[in-house]
Design brief:
Elements: H1 2-13, E1 17-25, E2 36-41, E3 47-52, E4 58-64, E5 67-74, E6 81-87, E7 92-99, E8 118-121, E9 124-128, H2 140-144, E10 150-152, E11 158-160, E12 167-170, E13 173-174, H3 182-188, E14 194-200, E15 215-220, E16 227-239, E17 246-256, E18 260-284, E19 290-316, E20 321-348, E21 353-381, E22 389-413, E23 422-450, E24 453-476, E25 480-482, E26 488-507, E27 510-529, E28 534-541, E29 544-555, E30 558-569, H4 573-576, E31 580-581, E32 587-590, E33 598-610, E34 614-635, H5 638-643, H6 647-652, E35 661-685, E36 688-702, E37 710-726, E38 730-739, E39 742-744, E40 747-749, E41 752-763, E42 768-775, E43 783-788, E44 792-800, E45 804-814
Parallel strand pairs: 1-7, 12-15, 32-35
Antiparallel strand pairs: 1-4, 2-3, 2-5, 5-6, 8-9, 9-14, 10-11, 12-13, 14-15, 16-17, 16-45, 17-18, 18-19, 18-44, 19-20, 20-21, 21-22, 22-23, 23-24, 24-25, 24-26, 26-27, 27-28, 27-29, 29-30, 30-33, 31-32, 33-34, 34-35, 35-36, 36-37, 37-38, 38-41, 39-40, 40-43, 41-42, 42-45, 43-44
Amino acid sequence: MAILGISTFTYAQQGRFSISGKVVDASSSEPLPYVSVAVMKTSDSTIVDGGITTDNGSFTIQNRTNGKYILRYSFVGYKDLYADVEIKNSNLNVGTVQMSATAEMLEAVTVVGAKQMMEYKLDKRVINVDQNLVSTGGDASDVLENVPSVEVDDEGNISLRGASNVTLLIDGKPSTMYGNDVASVLAQLPASQIDKVEVITNPSAKYNPEGMSGIINITLKEKGNLGFNGNVNISAGSPLKEWMPKERLSTSLNWSNSKFSLSASVDVDYNKRAMLSDGLRFMKGSNGGTTDLIRTKRDGGENGWGGGARLGGEWYINKYNTLSLNFNTHIHKTTDDYSTTTNQNLLRMGEGDIDDRNNIDKSSGDNDGTFNNIGFTYQKEFKDRKDQLFYVSGTWNWGKFTRNTLDEITYKNAGEIYGGSTITNYMRGDTSESNNHRAVVDVHYVHPFSEKSQLEVGYNLDYNESSSTSITTYDTADNKTRNLTESYDFDREEYIHALYATYGFQLGSFSAQLGLRKEFVNNDFTKIDFTKEKTSFDKDYNPWYPTVHLSYQVNQMNSFQISYSRRIRRPDPWTMMPNIDRSNKEYLRFGNPSIDPEYTNAFELGWSLMFHKTTIFTSAYYRQVSNGMTRFQFLWNEENAHYYGFDWAWEAASNEGENVTAQTFVNLAHSSNYGLEVIIDRDITDWWKANLSMNFYGSYQDGTALNYDKTTAFNFDAKLNTTITLPKNFTIQISGRYYAPRENIQGRDNARYDVDLAIRKSLWNKQANIGLNFRDVFDTRGGFGYAYTDQYISFTKRHPYSRSIRLSFSYNFGKTANMKRNKVKPQQSTESQYTGGSGENYDE
């Protein structure tokens, strides 16, 4: 308190004083967080300053002069409260302020102060999932769809501020600890188990720098307080176009006393979905005299089930030491069935001949996965220093993934316009199996030099080991043959050692955090095909990652931040693997072992302004990218293969025929993107709230190294979420999204929009909720886009069966009693004392 005392004394010498107090519920005496406290003039009631209460209900408003003021306390569901105060040459503490719920709120026996759906801090945004009705009964992807500036496409891929390659964390741990890919992890995680989502667009040096556009941290619900409690969640729904049921059941139990806590949760889901896409490609042959018109239509879907369980426990050894253990397991099984029809009309210029070809590919398969995760955390706090902290955590993950697919292909060729026809049938089978192991170890120490400065240092180990086997067979009318070059074993081992340090300090209203991270990365890859041909390569690099965060808090209603960080996008094994995929006769896919990591220098300027019932958050950002990795496709011939550096692929696949498109990954010399994000949170009335987020962003790509032009594009996204509270515990929420057209060096995606609707009714003293969700009300999801090269132009239309309804029910039971005790900080905690915020540093 010494430094705070000096700061207060300085204000007093200058005739400036503080107003502080604590706000509680009048009936339960529970602290009320997020209450808006406005300081108004007595003459005309204009607002001159203000703040928001912290989690314990306290507030402090600095830098006020002598005089009389009116304090106004406002909180959704409570009556506005006014109080006359006067500052007389000293700091003013108004004591404990009691707020009473409105008559509508008092209809329930238990009064619970609801959090705002979104909280804004200069270093992150926090979305409280309980207030997001349109995701009720769904999964994590439904939750993320309603997070400002976050987009989840139909395949479960995530982008942030229009850029992909986002790092997804779950309770501070990499999402890949819970599954083989992000899309499957999101589908397996029930929305009912999620407490909040944190979006960190410019993280500090203590975070893994992977993720060019930032970090999304999904925080799961904590265990209950003292006592026994739990909840049950049930949901069921289906698309309206066709009955494809999707059901989910999840339940959790918690028990704890002053020394121990135990928790367990189980979830089971069944899912069926469908997708329709229609593509058209207009192609000029390599000799310039032949033109193809190719139409590809794909229809089908997949269904499957999954289940998971979580077990956890904590031992509160004493006031300063805590040990926690946890175990997670998840299994899933899906089957898919797709039919792809390709019609090719070959027109020979000048001859008037038409050659019709028809290709029908019926693909079916099944996927099985099992993932297990065990971890521990030991945390030590220190008696003599309040914020001194040491913790060590470790997590071990092991999983197995298998996939079997069967393609039954019928190829019809009519020959010349009056000639005969031939029909060729063959079947292709693919079997793959992978085993994955990953270990993450974190050692972290926080040393406060004073209440206004501290040092954080740490070590992080991220170890990945995977082995996979893929077998491809062909079955024609003549024989069944295993393809020895397309069948292979692939092994990968990766070590990432990292050391980091951050130093933060605060001088009055100015605060800063400086950070530096050093990584030592070693990758070894080995591929052996079934002809015993061995290919080995490695990828080692040892980069530095500096970070800077500066902030200035004008008052608790107005603050600024400037930040910088260097980040990386690492090529994954499949992006680099020198294997040629011939499963689609129109496309040839292969990895690029020469591809390099992508680096980003990210700059950001943030501004937060709060009024009585409105919060405005703006952020201007600029990201400069070098060695940008991008998906790239070109007409497959010897000249192009040599030009783009894929002679090794041409040697292995030179007889694929005409008009085949090659698809791989390459590095761009330079690219950048920039934008302005604006988020407005408004309590229109006591019963109507709205949140509008807009992202205006542009991009620049230099494709000259690939024989393409420099491309500049400007895009715009917007999301609107509005919630209406009705009598009798009814709530309605409407969520809408708009995505403007997007361009890249090889094409464009057209604009699209969609709207969701949700209705919820609270029952039994708010212990239970029943909800009805209507997803994609106007059936407008999907998209239309095109790609172009010197040889062809292709058009693609996608239409998922997303227009659907879902009915959900949740019930909370048991009792809890509040008791303060040491709380284990989550791994890779996102809390920061020196990066601005809403007054957390002024708690009493």
